[in-house]
Amino acid sequence: MALKFTVPGLDEAASEKIISILQNRLSQEQEAALVLKHAHWNVTGPNFIAVHEMIDPEVEAVLAQADETAERIATLGGSPDGRPDAIIRNRSWKGIDLTGRHSTESFLKALVEYYDSFIADDRKAIAELDELDVISSNIVQDHVQELEKFQWFMRSHLV
Transmembrane ranges (predicted)? Predict the structure, then answer.
């Protein structure tokens, strides 16, 4: 990776490691938006409208997270990769296997499981970033707080 520059206080090796961690998070954030939109379009059954309408704001929130992550990568001198093949190339998590239309309960259970991995991966990134760059770590921490809140919303529908 050829960096255009580094920010004051970070050397090139640290910047490259931070960018790599953030690129992985960017890819999962982008995929999460797609997974959520798929659920939004295909959810059926009891509580349809509540779940359908609950998902769209989360799509926007996750896309805003992706934008913030991509801008941090650029700030660090990197080039964020938002192409679909980057999502696949960076994928280190399990996706959702639901295709087609499914009940609200099925989608919510699958999304809760997806968020378990998403949040755990973000928390792992935070631990790594804490040692490298507190600014990047704080960005991901803010993302986790939002993700955990939405996961709580989904779990509350399942009680």
Answer: none
Query: Nearest Cα to 110, choosing from 39, 51, 54?
Result: 39
Q: Length of the chain, please?
A: 159
Contact 29, 67 (CB under 8 A): no
CA 150/CA 156 separation, integer angstroms: 10
With b for 16 or more beta-carbon neighbours within 10 A and e for fewer, the 9-27 pattern comes to: ebeeebbbbbbebbbbbbb
Was domain 12-158 assigned CATH 3.40.50.10700?
no
What is the DSSP secondary structure assignment for residue 9, as one 8-state letter? T
With H, G, I as helix, E, B as strand and everything else as coil, classify residue 97: coil
Helical H segments across the chain, by residue range? 12-42, 48-75, 84-90, 104-132, 134-158
Write the pLDDT tens digit of every residue in 103-149. Answer: 999 999 999 999 999 999 999 999 999 999 999 999 999 999 999 99
In 143-158, which positions are buried (b, 16+ CB within 10 angstroms) versus exposed (e)?
bbeebeebbeebeebe
What are the b/e assignments for 102-127, b being 16+ CB within 10 Å? bebebbbbbbbebbeebbebbeebbe
Rounded to two decimals, what is the model's pTM?
0.95
